[in-house]
């Protein structure tokens, strides 16, 4: 499976699970729910082996902003307990999908 297919699958699954549209995830919105969903997308893309520069290109962001999302993900997860639940459900969906 190529990077763009992995990206599309992860983006769609995260969008369904978090109830944040894929358009909003890809937007420049700084609303907490949107940034949480974007962070989850970045988390799974790094887990699947994509580099921050590749993720930045796919999300139309800077690689610095992607590195920031990666470095602050654990504290974001601690602050919002729903993220852990989302991660669990998305991981199950990805196992079935990919």
UniProtKB/TrEMBL annotation:
Family annotation (InterPro entries): Trp_repressor/repl_initiator
Top-rank taxon, per record: Bacteria
SUPFAM superfamilies noted in UniProt: TrpR-like
Protein name: Chromosomal replication initiator DnaA C-terminal domain-containing protein
């Amino acid at each position: 499976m190529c990077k763009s297919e992995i990206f599309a699958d992860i983006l769609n699954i995260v969008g369904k699970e978090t109830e944040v549209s894929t358009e909003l995830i890809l937007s420049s919105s700084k609303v907490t729910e949107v940034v949480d969903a974007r962070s989850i997308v970045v988390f799974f893309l790094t887990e699947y082996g994509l580099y921050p520069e590749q993720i930045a290109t796919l999300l139309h962001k800077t690689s610095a902003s992607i590195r920031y999302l990666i470095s602050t993900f654990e504290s974001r997860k601690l602050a919002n307990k729903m993220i852990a639940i989302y991660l669990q459900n998305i991981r199950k969906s990805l196992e079935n999908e990919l």
